[in-house]
Amino acid sequence: MALLKIRKFPDDSLKQVAQPVENIDGKLNALIDSMAQTMYAAPGVGLAAPQVGESMRVVVLDTDHDEPGKHLLKLINPRIVEAEGKVIWEEGCLSVIDYNADVERAARVLVRAWTPDQEEIEIEADDLLAVALQHEIDHLDGKLFIDRISRIKRELYRRKLKKLIREGKADERPSKVRI
């Protein structure tokens, strides 16, 4: 296992729709393990394969900060099959430097996915887990949380990012845990 480089906005690879996984093998399992290690080191709640430059429909998630690894989800080809209600949640992202914003999401979701053990599972989620699942599945569809905020807020963030880059602060580690 190795730490992977997390791609940052405005990297074009973050806008690409990830390809479905056709074969679950040792190479994929090694990638998933490296993604989990990278997510914990970042620190983050979730990480999608496109964020580390892999066009695959794979995510790792762990919303339990008290016992990291105990509730780690490793999901292959996840998809939302049911969504209901609405919730506003402040989101950040490992691929979006130094920015948080309120995002409207479904309050509850049902997600189907495959595990590295080649089992199909269903996850019923609400609260942070529901938000994190939607956030990571958005990455698989080439979307960032900033695509879900107003154009004005997005433009303000772009200006802030340009300033951070000019000042050489764009590669600093996040001050908060990110989704």
Structure explained in plain terms:
The chain is of the alpha+beta class and 179 residues long. It has one domain: Peptide deformylase (Peptide Deformylase), CATH 3.90.45.10. 26% of the residues lie in helices and 28% in strands. The protein contains 3 helices and 7 strands; from the N terminus they run αβββββββαα. A 5-stranded antiparallel sheet has the order 1-2-3-6-7. Strand 4 and strand 5 form a beta hairpin. The relative contact order is 0.19.
Assess the beta-strand content as a share of residues: 25-35%
What separation lies between the terminal Cα atoms? Answer: 21 Å
Enumerate how many helices there are, as a single number: 3
Count of distinct structural domains: 1
Features:
179 residues, globular, Peptide Deformylase, five-stranded antiparallel β-sheet, two-stranded antiparallel ribbon
